[in-house]
Amino acid sequence: MFLRRIVLRMVNFFFGMCLTLLYFHTECVSAEKLGSDKFTKSSLKILLDENVYTEIEIFSPLSKPRGIVVVVPGTGGLSDMYFGEEIAKKNYSPDSKGGLTEKLIGSGYTAVFYNQRGYSTLSKCITGDSLYLRSASFVSRCVDPEIRKTVTFSKITADTEKIFKALNQVVETQGVPQLVLAFSEGIYHVNSLIENKEIDPVGVVAVGGPLESISYVMKFQLGFEFYLNLIEKAFLHCDSDVLNVNQIINCSDSSAYTGIQNSLITAMGGQTISKKDLPARQEFFKKFVHDAFDKYLKISETEYVNGSFLQFVLPKNWSAAYYTEAFSSKKSSVERLRKFPHKVIYMFGSLDHLVPIHSDGICVLDGLVASRTCQIEVVAGVGHGLEDKSMLPTNEALNKIIAALNSVNK
Fold first, then answer.
1. Cα dihedral value 409, 192, 84, 51, nearest 10
2. Measured between alpha carbons, how far is 374 from 386 in angstroms, rounded to an integer?
3. CB 188 within 8 A of CB 194
4. What is the pLDDT of residue 174?
5. Closest by CA position to 143, among listed 307, 319, 323
6. Per-residue buried b or exposed e for 75-89, using 16+ beta carbons within 10 Å of the residue's own CB
7. What is the pLDDT of residues 38-61, one digit of tens each?
8. Can you give the pTM of this predicted structure?
């Protein structure tokens, strides 16, 4: 999922305190790196909890914006959904965000980006001129493990609410329609706030955001269901009792997928798998999921879970309660959106192997319809974040995101 957005492996909660806004600066800057003429960039430092802040970056066109697009991060928690690929570029620009910033500004939108609690603003903490140096600086300078180890699912939801409400108090964003562009897990926090009437955006676009409950998606991922389904499909299509990785990919017509080999080998239990051993692998992962759920439903809130970024370990990157809450959440996005009167578009890459994807049409799950204003759009040839084999979004995909935002902004 979102469990891998920055290659991380593995009830609304409100803190009951006053929201403090510290307005830092506004400047008119040349947008040469973004390919635009000019835009304004400003930032807000927001108090999320006692001594815990995050900074919002606001990119605005010089003309009156047609709306404010609040970009809600996924499980990785970063304002740049394509960060791991962006920092590999020779001329890395922290403002690019996979080309999304330029597209939003160029389409007349004010773009709002932020990191989850415990991450510094990337433009202020990333140093170095290579992938290794930049990734090392991220781990050493951008991450606060003492804050990250307290991150729970409900805290992320509460922090998301504070971001939206802070924008309502800023002169330059007051009265401008708010739209949501939520990536992956981010849609759960948005939908929870919408259901509880804490926020009321004029429209929502989700990229890689599942329709199912987060506990269902956790089972889907931890149970390697996508990969076990590929293996089963391969045996149906190829007349062989034993298959290797490449044969499974070819026999299941999965060659277009990127980066699935290692996880497929894990699902297989080695470099090859026999047809007679597949049921045992399926049972192994069912038990693995059961044991994981059992562990995290009982674990202490004082424990924490590590993450990783490229070759680096991110110690204490979530509270164990993050998983406890996620595993306990049974309500689907479809259920949460049933009374939302505005338009919602769920965008899935046809090559997404991190979450279950659905066909074009209305948002329906197990016979339950979200609302007639909720639609699904599948983008061909791209993955979870609408990225191609370069792991960055294609220009076509970015244009489709803009088209979706235009569609819900009515």
1. 110
2. 19
3. no
4. 75
5. 307
6. bbbbbbbbbbbbbbe
7. 688 999 999 999 999 999 999 999
8. 0.89
